[in-house]
Amino acid sequence: MWAFDTIFVMEGMKMGEFKFISTLASVKASEVILDALFVIAIGVIVVFIALILLTAIFWLFGKFMQQGQKTSVFEEKGVNNDTSSEPHILPEIPVAEAGISEEVVAVISAAVAAMSADGKRYTVRRVRRVVNRPVWAAAGIAESTRPF
Amino acid sequence: MNSLLQAIVDIWNESGFVRLFTLGTGNNLWERIASGGIGNLIMLGIACILLYLAIKKQFEPLLLLPIAFGMLLVNLPLGEVMKSQFNTLVPLTEQEYANYLKGIFDQSYPVFEMNGQYYWQHFETGGLLWYLYQGVKFGIYPPLIFLGIGAMTDFGPLIANPKSFLLGAAAQLGIFATFFGAAALGLTGISDLTFSSQEAASIAIIGGADGPTAIWLTSKLAPHLLGPIAVAAYSYMALVPIIQPPIMRALTTKKERSVVMQQLRPVSKTEKIMFPIFVTLIVVLLLPSAAPLVGMLMLGNLFRESGVVERISKTAQNELMNIITIFIGVTVGATANAATFLQPKTILIIILGLIAFSVGTAGGVLFGKLMYFFTGGKVNPLIGSAGVSAVPMAARVSQKVGQQENPANFLLMHAMGPNVAGVIGSAVAAGVLLTLFQ
To answer: From the CA of B284, how many Å to the nearest CA of chain A?
Structure first.
């Protein structure tokens, strides 16, 4: 029973090195309460230490990664700036690939517009086919070949 | 004709039906009921109620259904599905000894010589569920379940907002507060209300709202309580949408519940791959006893995020997870025989489990309020309640309660952070309790 076997020494104790200081005959309510409070303190402290450590590490890691992403974006922009002095003529690309009807473009645009619930606005800049085979055939091939 | 009737009567008398209406032995009437066939009859009723809840009400059916059926099986008299294997030494007869010398003896039964007499070791085969139960007893199934959970879990929301870890830690308060309650019951001096420290720790872990963790810790500290603790843990997890909202509303103001949180930043693949490695290193170095649970959880997640072992990841998420779920459910249910389940302590476990769950929810919400205060109102305290684990139900509850105040508010992804942090938090808490009490 709990009261029989685990009355802890409160001072100078390490986890897993409990000493018994009392038997049931001499157990006091205050001792039981103190022991339970000790377990609560150890438990809460260890859980918080572990998770605070993880919080700190992933916060720092996140900052580092975001910094890395910003740097790479800046570098890309820098490369563009170097060439900005030259006239930059983009090849003319049709908004919708040949064979895609206006109705389909309208449906795709409506689907994208439905994503704008978060306040951000999206624009459909280009609609093109990415596979030449039917979607279901492509899905079938992907499923069959994935294990290999 | 008489002998035929006599044979039928004998078969009837030897059947389980007759055993169901007998009393066992004990000091009082209740003990005699619990240890006899009537106790089994009561347990069959409880198993049928749980089956009803699992099938009709869909309360955590994936686990409650096999648990309930395991409970039903083990309480059928004479079925002996949980009979343990045992070995006995049987003296060899003269004929057997002569055969043994000639080598004409079944080699699968070892022969021993003691004081000039030869014995062969007879294995009494155990029940089917007893063999499957060894996976629970040796702590094998819960970490394997964690492997599957890891492979299914996206820790992205937690990585995007690492402060969620703190909410996952705060929601573990219920575990330790309940330990206090269970321990304090010992002060009553009534033996039926007194829990050993191991039992108190096993009951308290219900507050982690994590079934595999509760089963893992209980199998190591108080295996005789596996049945009631598993039933309580899974019942409360199923009742999350009923238990949590009143506590969440009572502890928060309308203004706090209406907070719309900023969209989470996108998380890179590198971060997702590094996450399981870092978590394993830090948690296992800090608390080695949590290694089986945290290690498997993170291995499963690395399968998922690495993207190079898709076949293994799919197996861990589906086939392995399902097989282990069957084994763990039916065997944990089979530990709930009448003699161990029909005790006053079972009712106490149910009550203490509810307290653990409620205090855990309150701990998370209150810490959420603290974060609301320190961030100048940027954190919605409702996401704190998701820190109790119960993935993803607790996060859905945060979302639902938040939307009741502001239908345009989407807290789900914000609540998933504390939710998955709670899984790690309860595994750490289980490691602490195991270190203290094993």
So the answer is: 10
